[in-house]
Write a structure and sequence with these properties.
Layout lengths: L19 H13 L6 H14 L3 E5 L2 H11 L7 E4 L6 H8 L3 E4 L11 H7 L4 E7 L8 H10 L4 E4 L7 E2 L2 E2 L6 E5 L12 E5 L2 H11 L35 H12 L1 H19 L5 E2 L7 E2 L5 E5 L5 H13 L15 H7 L7 H7 L2 E4 L7 H25 L1
Parallel strand pairs: 2-3, 2-4, 4-5, 5-8
Antiparallel strand pairs: 1-9, 6-7, 6-11, 8-9, 10-12, 12-13
Helix pairs in contact: 1-8, 2-8, 3-4, 3-7, 9-13, 10-13
Bound molecules: pyridoxal-5'-phosphate.
Pyridoxal-5'-phosphate binds next to helix 3 and helix 4.
């Protein structure tokens, strides 16, 4: 997520939408004197649970922490295998490594860019203890099939919904398909806390385990001795299990509450930008646009187009560089996880292991995408893209 704020770029790749409401919530929290474990966390959890239509929501300090606790709560341990996608942000697979389990990659569907359920089923073995599915770029396609498949094989589905907060599929909210779902609130996500995450589930046992583990393994709802209501000596310094400090501060939660209150407005603005890109780029011959299932209400995370198959990774990278030279923030979401230096070294993966993922990843271009993007800027982005593609085609033609 290198060029997130795109330091000084005229048209940045991403930009959080912060208004007076967010500033007011944060200032009020600072004035309240209560900076951790308080009413903002509780409110934020209630708002996210309502949106995801789950009984419980547990706030944590990042999406990555949420995935870690989710896997721990499901009892995933060293020696276990978890089936997941190589076409994602690295955190979805890293979390599996945190608990000592092995990520088993399965290639994606080239249209939806998500795990292909039939390939997942073929990869299930007695060592498979969970499936970790990702809604790539916010697209929930196949998540219900994956959930049904997991149910049939009696293994849990972990839904990495870090890119899909607010979207729905067949009338059901993203985050509600798995045994648990995880949202993230980094500044380039639909809504942000600065840093933050949330685990959502209908399972009380999982919710309580996550609450305890995010707070140093304390019993659920321990009493902080600094609070006047302190009555139960010992509970604050009692640690029932191995825990972590994955708490979300009240300051971060206050930001999250304000953003949640504005979620519909934010999603509508993002939807408007996506529609404008769609209609503007529809006729362009060298570009593959994102496909959205008719039964899906997208919560757009990023707007990623793909070049057609005559283009190589080198062509794509020169187009990205050309756009950046013209002050347009772009990115190559996502280089395949199995081809990250650490994964190649540690697990011996190489080029060609997951051909669909690789072929897609070589040709992606994430365009500037945020709520404030104006029509003129969208036009400029599309024109720049068009020129860079034409220039690249000219060099391809000349070389052949
Ligand atoms: C953003 C993201 C995460 C991690 O979220 P953080 O809050 O940055 O830790 C995990 N998985 C996916 C697919 C993401 O896009």
């Amino acid at each position: 997520m290198e060029s997130l704020m795109s330091n000084g770029q005229d048209i940045p790749l991403s930009r959080p939408d912060i208004t007076a409401l967010e500033i007011d919530h944060v200032v009020q929290t600072l004035k309240s004197g209560r900076l951790s474990i308080g009413p903002m966390q509780e409110q934020f959890e209630a708002l996210v649970a309502a949106r995801a239509d789950t009984r419980y929501a547990v706030a944590v300090s990042s999406g990555t922490c949420g995935l870690h606790l989710g896997l721990l709560a499901l009892g995933i341990k060293p020696g276990d295998e978890v089936i997941t996608t190589p076409f994602s942000f690295v955190a979805s697979s890293n979390a599996i490594l945190y608990v000592g389990a092995k990520p088993v990659f399965v290639d994606i569907n080239p249209r939806t860019l998500n795990l292909d359920p039939s390939q997942v089923e073929a990869a299930i073995t007695p060592r498979t203890k969970a499936v970790l599915g990702v809604e790539a770029f916010g697209n929930p396609s196949h998540m219900i099939e994956l959930a049904n498949l997991c149910q049939k094989h009696e293994i849990p589905l972990i839904e990495d919904s870090c890119e899909g907060f607010g979207g729905t599929h067949r009338g059901r909210p993203i985050g509600s398909f798995g045994r648990l779902g995880v949202f993230a609130f980094y500044p380039n996500k639909q809504i942000t806390c600065g840093e933050g995450g949330m685990i959502v589930t209908d399972d009380e046992r999982i919710a309580n385990l996550c609450r305890s583990m995010r707070n140093q393994g304390r019993p659920v709802d321990p009493i902080d001795p600094a609070e006047p209501a302190w009555q139960a000596p010992g509970s604050w310094l009692m640690h029932e299990r191995l825990g972590y400090n994955y708490r979300l501060s009240e300051i971060h939660a206050a930001l999250g509450v304000a953003q949640c209150k504005r979620l519909d407005e934010i999603l509508e603005l993002r939807n408007g930008v996506a529609s404008k890109y769609m209609s503007r780029l529809m006729g362009m011959p060298d570009i593959i646009l994102p496909t959205v299932d008719p039964e899906t209400t997208m919560s757009w995370f990023v707007f990623v187009v793909r070049l057609s198959s005559e283009f190589t990774a080198e062509n794509r990278d020169r187009i990205l560089a050309g756009m950046r030279r013209h002050e347009v923030g772009v990115s190559n979401y996502f280089p395949p996880i199995h081809l990250q230096p650490f994964y190649m070294r540690q697990f011996g993966y190489s080029d060609g292991d997951f051909p669909i993922t690789e072929s897609v990843a070589q040709r992606t271009i994430a365009l500037p995408f945020h709520t404030r993007l104006r029509e003129r800027e969208i036009d400029l982005v599309c024109q720049t893209l068009e020129v860079m593609i034409q220039r690249e085609k000219f060099t391809i033609d000349r070389a052949s």
